[in-house]
Amino acid sequence: MSDTITLAAEARDRVGKGASRALRRDGRVPAVIYGQKKEPTAIHLEEKALVKALMTGHFMNSVIMVDGQRTLAKDVAFHPVTDRPTHVDFLRIAAHETVTVPVPVVIVDEELSPGVKKGAVLSLVATELELTVDAADIPSEIVVSVKGKDVGDTIHIGDVRVPKGAKLVIEDPEFTVATIVAPSAMLAEAQEQAAEEAALAEAASAEAAAEAAAEEEGEDKGE
């Protein structure tokens, strides 16, 4: 289960672009808490503390206590040049409210995959999957095993196991989560082998045709 993150916050007396720019110059990040049919609360956070929380890797799927309120982060805006956080939206939630959150996908058992052992490339198509789950039981990650998977195999969402009580938002069992793909060297070798086999087959076919023609010519002469 994801750890609860706690962030200290202060109320914003003023809102608007000018006020927000002033806060950012002081190392603060504007934010808002909304939801549960209550009035939105305008706050600001310490940028350093926010960045530290973002660096945990599970900021978007953790319960975050902000200004004494239980929340989920719904959106984080970043500066297009500096990549610094510029605004955060938090959604108020109850202790056992059913929520939908993105959860990171983690691949395990690579050493037990014949395909990976052969040098194939493990491609993670879905880096995260959305889960509907009790807010008190949000997992920190979704573990996907590639044990026994060979070159060309695909791991579908139907192969993914989630914690009890949780449900994957994507219902299509054929949705691709990861693939085991032959690298270019292996593909080139396979293509070369296929070309050789095709050439041999063609040569054998031509030889058989020539022998058949010779036999037919011999029979004609015999007549």
TrEMBL record:
InterPro entries named among the record's database cross-references: Rbsml_bL25/Gln-tRNA_synth_N, Ribosomal_bL25/Gln-tRNA_synth, Ribosomal_bL25_b-dom, Ribosomal_bL25_C, Ribosomal_bL25_long, Ribosomal_L25_dom, Ribosomal_uL5_bac-type
Q: Where is this region: Disordered?
A: 198-223
Specify the superkingdom. Bacteria
Return the Pfam families for the record.
Ribosomal_L25p (PF01386), Ribosomal_TL5_C (PF14693)
**Gene Ontology MF annotations:** 5S rRNA binding; structural constituent of ribosome
Per the UniProt entry, what is one GO biological process?
translation
Domain (Large ribosomal subunit protein bL25 L25): give its ranges.
Answer: 7-90
Q: Which family does it belong to?
A: Belongs to the bacterial ribosomal protein bL25 family. CTC subfamily.
Q: What does this protein do?
A: This is one of the proteins that binds to the 5S RNA in the ribosome where it forms part of the central protuberance.
**The protein's assembly and partners:** Part of the 50S ribosomal subunit; part of the 5S rRNA/L5/L18/L25 subcomplex. Contacts the 5S rRNA. Binds to the 5S rRNA independently of L5 and L18.
Q: What is this protein called?
A: Large ribosomal subunit protein bL25
Lineage of this protein's species? Bacteria, Pseudomonadati, Pseudomonadota, Alphaproteobacteria, Sphingomonadales
